[in-house]
Amino acid sequence: MPLLDSLTEALRVLPGVGPKSAQRMAYHLLQRDREGAARLAGTLAAALAEVRHCARCNNFTEAEVCERCLSQQRDASQLCVVEMPSDLMVMESTLAYRGLYYVLMGKLSPLDGIGPRELKFDKLVERATDGMVQEVILATNFTNEGEATAHYLGEMLRARGLRVSRIARGVPVGGELEHTDLGTVAQAFVERRGW
Amino acid sequence: MPLLDSLTEALRVLPGVGPKSAQRMAYHLLQRDREGAARLAGTLAAALAEVRHCARCNNFTEAEVCERCLSQQRDASQLCVVEMPSDLMVMESTLAYRGLYYVLMGKLSPLDGIGPRELKFDKLVERATDGMVQEVILATNFTNEGEATAHYLGEMLRARGLRVSRIARGVPVGGELEHTDLGTVAQAFVERRGW
Question: How far is Cα B176 from Cα B138, in angstroms, rounded to an integer?
Fold first, then answer.
């Protein structure tokens, strides 16, 4: 197969990229921005080699344990569980939370074959039962899948004697943290309730 | 800058990819499809190293001269000028043309700084005046920019004594006047031919 066709096909691993836009991207990279294309190839290879998951919070990092988890400034008695790194960043920018995080890197999604094992719930349990954590705050999205994830995690963590809370439903039903204004997210955090 | 952020930024060289979707793509590549991501990095690097422009038709190829230009089965007296490789493929799939091609790899677009020099019109002139070509068929799109490109090329090639034609514009085959835009119907009327 010609390399141009291989490249078009390889670009289709990107989410939301169909055959037409993959072709347009391949032309663009080879014709209009070879420098950017070379940077993309190099950065992607480097990221694949270097980026891993933090041993404590599961977020992306290039170290064994990420900076946030190592910080002495955070309240180690609170652990906030989010779906994705982008959700963590939304929580951080509200400035309403000073505890630590656990990033699931997804949500329960049986149709896509993503269950408790794929999301490594055991790693979260181990993290939450370190003796320091006193409250686990579930901040998964208020979508069906996010809610199901929160329910499952709530039961699992309460069974281990942990106090569990859920951010308040100030976030619109069916809405996602990433697309919610900061004030609403902050309010939902303040109004979290027993779960 | 963390590699994850570098990757998100590098992905923005792709046309139509903004900050949000670049982030989603970076997560997807690192979290859900590392194999596909490695293939993409490798193929992109290989394509950058190997894919060049055919010395005759300017299309992408991995050889000095592409297979189509070397073929003995094509009519070397006709040269069809298209904007992009995808346009060439559309022409080929009509099975209506047996001549050769020249691929501009773009169109005149002064606002984007793309002029006759960027599109290497001199390479086209050299190709068209090889002594074999008797007719140059302009098959650029019927957009403003495609039309401007055709006008410019037409004047330039006619000045070199070449016969120049333009693919026809009109009501689509199977199309109904009622469902065709007025500009097209008006143009089809103006360009009516003997019957």
Answer: 26
